[in-house]
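Hey team,

Sharing the NADH dehydrogenase run so nobody has to redo it. Sequence (307 residues) first:
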Amino acid sequence: MNNIFPLIALLIFPGGLFLMASGLVYEWVDRKLIARYQNRVGPRWFQPLADVVKLLAKEEIIPTGVSRGLFVALPVIGMAGALTAALYVPIAGFAPSFSFAGDLVVTLYLLSMMTLCLGLAGANTTDRFSLIGATRTLTQLFSYEAPFLLALLGPAIVAGTWNIAEINNFAGQNIWLVVTQLMGFLVALVGLLGKLEMPPFDAPEAETEIVSGALTEYSGRGLALFRLGKDVELVVGLTLVASFYLGGIANPLEFLLKTLGLLIVMAGMQSLFARLRIDQTVGLWWRIGALLALVQLLVLIVVRVLR
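Structure output:
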């Protein structure tokens, strides 16, 4: 009987089904906001769910010339990585399901698993659009993972710990770190957009150029799992940035207000800028984003030593 409640927490709330449902809701909010910014109506509230249900009901076609086991396993692994990362994050303002020293590093690696799976999914096929998308995905991975990691290390250095729950508690007891670490906050937001391949950093899946990029050959449940995994990553990423830079997350209301506030800003950024070429996406941000994050880290380390 004592094992029932942990299972409910993992499978239903605040993990599992709740996390996937939240991802679909946040996807709808993002699409709706962008539509309104562009003077369009946008999708109805159930559209993301309808898309996933439709994909799950469709036949999954496995193209010739691919590794069948890899083709089927990659969406599952990517989805599992995103859901596992949520175990160490204060989803909905609740304490993380699991917590240990250094879980920040593990969480960031788990969040990278989806991008790696996307790259492998494109490289596993013989389709030229998929291969180009895979190349762009993996190239962009190296350009955005490092700045995003460095941006989240700033609050960790100030808090003196690599534990997400302790950093969240520290942020809730002090002035919002976005005030003292504005550069890191901006780098984290832009890095999250790049990690999720959202506009203007959506060159890896540019539908007007390479159909759907690395996922061109995917259909049915494989495509649905990749979409769900990205939605879960969006929620986890927003939660990390809010808990580190916006005074921590202590309850569901704070979670809702702060993550949706960040999503409004991100939707505005997606609407303001046109899609960047892959060379602009990679070269420009690698130099500027990494440099800004490193400068901030250097300042924080110097201030901490002088104290």
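The chain has a mean pLDDT of 85.

Ping me if you want the raw files.
A.
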